[in-house]
Amino acid sequence: MAKRIIQQRRGRGTITYRCRPKAYVYRLVYPSRLSGEGIVQKLVNSTGHSAPLARVKSPQGVFFIPAFKNMYEGQKINFDSKEIIDGNFVKIKDIPVKTKIYCIESNPGDGGKFVKAGGTEAVVSRIFNGKTFVMLPSKKEKEFNPDCRAIIGVIAGTGRKDKPVVKAGKMHYIMTLRNKLWPRTSAIKMNAIDHPFGSGRGKNPKSKIAKRNAPPGARVGLIRPRRTGKRK
To answer: How many Å apart are CA 178 and CA 84, to the nearest integer?
Structure first.
């Protein structure tokens, strides 16, 4: 008798494949309106995030942000100043070129959407005709609204990948903390009874484009691609 394939098990939503709510207790969004000065109350370690978090107290309330490099408890952060100092909240139009920033807003007041992973940074690349362009960690340049805010500095945790994992058991616990599916078995290496791509005879899988009305057990591969064939 066949067992459920991974796509079916994950779709059912059991605890094995469900996100752990406790890992994401902290919401990394700063208030839409900030003024005055804040203070870093505490640096927090969260298993659900790749960077240490900072609990910041402001006149508008308490919020969490990814900690920047060399941040310390008791440090003061300015929300109104145009001074380029690590930790300050500054509008993109007031940030000079080649400045390192993170936690950038997508739209003014949304609290920061871009560049929030540990060890990452973005750089203000150029300002042209009143438009500000930022080089993201993916090496892609993106235009931002000049009124969007960003935090000056580089996110802490840049050396987290320098030390090799070495043991499979350690990786097991790393992935378990975030409820990630690990280890991932290639479909072509499975038995034919366990996956539509299984058996691997000739290493030539079936079509990777799933039909729109395919049942869960056959809904594997490329799910409803926008287009197929060679781009002309």
So the answer is: 35
Tell me: the pLDDT tens digits for 178-220? 777 888 888 888 888 788 888 877 677 667 788 888 887 777 8
> Which residue in 34, 43, 48 sits closest to 80, CA to CA?
34
34 CB burial (10 A radius; 0-12, 13-18, 19+) = buried
User: 21-152 maps to which CATH number?
Assistant: 2.30.30.30
Is 28 within 8 Å of 64 (Cβ atoms)?
A: yes
pTM comes to 0.78
Closest among 47, 48, 67 to 56, alpha carbons compared? 67
Instruction: Let me know: does 141 contact 131? Beta carbons within 8 Å.
Output: no
Q: How many Å apart are CA 122 and CA 142, to the nearest integer?
A: 10
| CATH number of the 6-17+179-223 domain | 4.10.950.10
Residue 22 has a pLDDT of 74
Asked whether residue 226 carries a pLDDT value surpassing 80, the answer given is no
- As beta bridge partners, residue 65 has 54
Q: 130 near 145, Cβ under 8 Å? A: no
Q: Is the pLDDT of residue 227 over 70?
A: yes
Residue 127's DSSP bridge partners are 132
Domain ranges of the chain: 6-17+179-223, 21-152
Q: Could you give the 3-state DSSP secondary structure of residue 82?
A: coil
Residues 173, 44, 139, 31, CA torsion sign: positive
pLDDT, tens digit (0-9, with 9 covering 90-100), for 44-56: 998 888 899 999 9
